[in-house]
Amino acid sequence: MLRVSFFISTLFSAALLLAQNLTIDTLKASYKTRGILDSLDVHSQPYALPFALFGFTEFPSDQLVTEESQGLFLSPSSEKRIIFTALPHIGFGYTFGQQGTQLLTANYQQSISKLVVLNAEVFQNQSNGFQRNSAHKQLSYKFLMRILNSRIRNISSIEYSNLSTNWSGGLISDSLLEVLPQDLISVNKDNAFSRHLRVQYANNSRYSFSRNTDLKFGTELNMDYSVFKRFYYEEGDLNNIYSLITIDSTETADSIYFNRIHSSLGVFYESGKLKFSSHFCLSDWQSRTVGRQLDTTELSLDYYLEFKPKYCQFTSKGMYGLYGNFSSILIDNELYIGMNAARIRMYSLYSRIPPSPFIRDFRANNLDYTLPLLSLQQNIKLGIDFNYRKSIFSAQLGGEYWHSKNAYFFDSTAWSMQFPQAISALKVNLNTNLNSRRFVVQIGYNFTSLPNEILYIPQHRISARLAVKTGLFKEGRLKTILGMDAHYLSAFKRLEYSPVMGTFNISSLIQQEILAGYYSLGAFANFSVNQFRFFVRFDNIPFLWIDKKTEIISRYYYPTTQFKIGITWDFWN
């Protein structure tokens, strides 16, 4: 019945062209696919080190022990930002290099008429692995359509993502690393791979009772339907790898299925400096693993508040669970204060969130567990950022404290509250940027304080990017940037990864020793002629002389040098 009502409501909202309170932006003439020339090559850096296989653009990350880690398998949908452009725009970028690296980006925006705006994005990233049998391929696309008139605004979106990864499980032994390349050394898993598929459809609608552009109030109806599927396959003598075999000792073929319907109905009010909206939200989700199923209906209340007087802006958003979700609560506040060249941002987050369905109950060929009692993970986050920008110089100084309690961690066989005591951390970061007509100098420093027993994030991280701007050929028409960047990480514990569950084994960190850190060096050259731009990049230079047994993640070692070439082109009508 709920699915029928969802279908009818979606058709009804589309027919009335109701609308959505989402971010609306205008495409600037200076917009460039994959960013400005100074950082054109940066998008390819994650694909130089193994952590790209694990879904990180920057690693290590504190999200493994905060509330974000509860979304097991369920990658969050991307930001729904609709871009308006009077002229049609098409942007294209393609990067390829060693280790099978291929990174494809394409985006399209066009205002068909005063009423209709279309946006589309396509991404495809892949690599054949940093070790044998660790291939990686990701395809995703997003399509958005906005329909607008004086009272009505409707934004519909469709998102699709497909992620395929071949898992090696790391090298069996590092004894031969000094004499043989990694792709000739035996791995723990010769034939193991996972597939993730996610499809999401959303229709977010708004109807204003007032035609006054300075004062708007009315109703909002938001509908969202998503499907997630995961498949994990592995061959071999599984008795030698796993302590539990529930189905087959020679082959694993685990399937996971999750679908969710989410709808919200509420009101909004906008007048000058003030915006407010609130909704009653209804969710119905189902999850299935081998022979087991969970089915739950949840009701909650959310709100969004924005107050924007002169020189500052305050936003607050939150959610409270009314039924079916253990009285969950989330409150997220931000305050911006800006005057002239300086800006201060202060923020806070408080949440009490239940574990995701696959943490609660899971059955597969090598896993079988059910949480006897569910506890809410509690998170508190407090932070402040100071930003200064004037002429060619900018700087950012920030600090953050977070506190997590009742977190569930995977211990290779099940999820448990391995750390019933609270986990606290302190983060400080400093970044400076000098960008003149001839030089680019960027220096960053990050300090992170974690308990020593789970010190998987280095206390000290330093990054630097130095470049020279010049021009080649007649009158310097070929704009050129030549430079190098470096990263240093101090000592930390190496995380272990479980491909079967698709997560890190945080609990094993207690028995791990703290290992020496490492550094990386890269060189790049970026070029531009009108709208056409291209770059070359050389990564992992220290591989030529460092210890080949330097681990990035447990049993995933420092990869070989990597050369990449990339192009981008923005087409304007």
Which band does the percent of strand residues land in?
Answer: over 45%
List low-confidence stretches: 1-21
Q: CATH superfamily, please?
A: TonB-dependent receptor, beta-barrel domain
Question: What is the share of helical residues?
Answer: under 10%
Number of domains: 1
Instruction: Figure out the total of helices.
Output: 2
CATH topology: Maltoporin, Chain A
Number of strands: 32
CATH architecture: Beta Barrel
Whole-angstrom Rg:
25 Å
Q: Give the distance, in angstroms, between the N- and C-terminal Cα atoms.
A: 48 Å
Report mean pLDDT, rounded to a whole number: 89
Describe the sheet with the most strands: 22 strands, antiparallel, barrel
CATH C-level: Mainly Beta
> In terms of structural class, how would the helical and strand content be classed?
mainly beta
Categorize the overall geometry.
Answer: globular
Give a short summary of the structure.
By secondary structure, this protein is mainly beta. It has helices at residues 2-16, 357-360, and strands at 23-26, 81-84, 89-97, 102-111, 116-127, 136-148, 152-166, 192-208, 215-235, 251-271, 274-289, 292-307, 312-323, 329-339, 342-353, 361-363, 368-370, 377-390, 393-405, 409-410, 415-416, 423-435, 439-449, 460-472, 478-489, 497-498, 503-504, 518-529, 532-539, 551-553, 556-557, 562-572.
Would you write up a description of this structure?
The protein is mainly β and 573 residues long. It has a single domain (2-572), classed as Beta Barrel (Maltoporin, Chain A). It has two helices and 32 strands. It has a 22-stranded antiparallel β-barrel. A hairpin with a 2-residue loop joins strand 10 and strand 11. The longest helix has 15 residues, at 2-16.
